[in-house]
Amino acid sequence: MSNPFPGSSRPAPGTPNLPTPPTGWPIGSYGTYEEAQRAVDHLADSDFPVQEVTIVGVDLMLVERVTGRLTWGRVLGGGAASGAWFGLFVGLIMGMFTPQGSWIAPVLAGLGAGIVFGLVFAAVGYASTRGRRDFSSASQLVAGRYDVLAQPKHAEQGRDLLAKLAMRPQNP
């Protein structure tokens, strides 16, 4: 099988998608992902073979931002709301297969059952933590820096293009 992306580390069609380390030489290093994207966009605008470029996040860290305190009211309210959505969905599906004019009963039954199950599952889940996690949060994987790599045969050209980009003022 031939690879449609010659010289890159992308697997040929049909080969397993196994994790592989990136290849190439560093041609730029940036503090944010947005800056690395800007650099690759500049390379693309300059007719650089960007299929030979990889953005690599270095010094990865998991950042968990606390979004609020959990109380029984918030937990049960969230459980009831998510259960209501699921119950409404199931009720609508059931209502599609009932005789015409009687779809409201399956929708209300599904909604009620969804709320009850949502409340029960939320209460059991929250009670099982025994107060060890009384907060809600959102997790995100971020990098300390983002390196732009290019295959060796294009690395010098890429460095030159990115040096010109660095000399231009950045738009806000």
Q: What's the structural blueprint in terms of helices and strands?
A:
Elements: E1 25-30, H1 33-45, E2 53-69, H2 72-96, H3 104-128, E3 135-150, H4 152-167
Antiparallel strand pairs: 1-3, 2-3
Helix pairs in contact: 2-3
Characterise this structure:
The chain has helices at 33-45, 72-96, 104-128, 152-167; strands spanning 25-30, 53-69, 135-150. By secondary structure, the chain is an alpha+beta fold. The protein folds into two domains: 25-65 and 142-165, Alpha-Beta Plaits, CATH 3.30.70; 71-133, no CATH class. It has a three-stranded antiparallel sheet with strand order 1-3-2. The relative contact order is 0.23.
Shape annotation: elongated
Enter the CATH topology name of the largest domain. Answer: Alpha-Beta Plaits
Strand order of the largest sheet: 1-3-2
Termini, distance in Å? 46 Å
Instruction: Please write the string of helix (H) and strand (E) elements.
Output: EHEHHEH
Global Rg = 26 Å
Mean pLDDT: 88
> What would CATH call the architecture of the largest domain?
2-Layer Sandwich
CATH class of the largest domain: Alpha Beta
- Describe the sheet with the most strands: 3 strands, antiparallel
Helix content: 40-55%
How many domains comprise the coordinates? 2
- How many β strands by DSSP? 3
Provide the β-strand percentage band: 15-25%
Low-confidence stretches: 1-7
Helix count equals: 4
Helix- and strand-based class? Answer: alpha+beta
Keywords: Membrane, Transmembrane, Transmembrane helix
Region (Disordered): 1-26
Domain General stress protein 17M-like: 27-114
Transmembrane segments: 75-97, 103-127
